Fold this protein.
Amino acid sequence: MAETAGGGANIAAGGRYPYYYGPEGRLVLVDSALEAVNRGSTTIGIKTPAFALLASHIKPVRPLIDPAEKIFVIDGHIGATGSGYIGDILQLIDELRLEAQKHRLNFESPIDVGSLAKHLGSFLHNYTVYAVRPQAASVIIAGVDQTGLQLYQVDPSGTFFRGSGFAIGKSADAALDVVQSEYSADMSVEQAVALSNKAVERALGERPIVEIGVVSAKDGRRFQKLD
């Protein structure tokens, strides 16, 4: 029995870990998931002291087929969007909604945005530990809580970041350059919409159709989609 157990350990050490880690110690499956994200819709997150905005490119579809929804309400005060495989994005959106509902039932109060981002990071990290493929999706979460407006990006590895400007998806670096160069803390929602459209257009090289969602520090503090 000891010999069998040892053989199993050798298989795990000799077979499992090279399967997960590349020569430079990088997580191979996570890198592949990130490559899938980089082929997804160009998606922007912008936060100012007054509001947080999410914008995602709606890719053209075949005739008679409705485009996929890109901006999602998670709870009254939180919204999210993503880039990558749409099936994986939808699973992560469902996980966010479930966690927000659990918090309301258990504590009779809305969940704070940071806790929701941390939960999603842990959920995604589990896919890098066990023998399943990582979710090929990155998510941007925008919301408002007792600490103010919040904007988070969560990647397939489970790593999450908080900030005022993010870009994921196709040509995200080009889009982020536009956001960083023209960002202003006192911009209006209309200016932020124009900036997100410009960033997506720069990334794609064409005039895009973009879905937008906004949450404000005032006006009911609710996340809502814009027409």
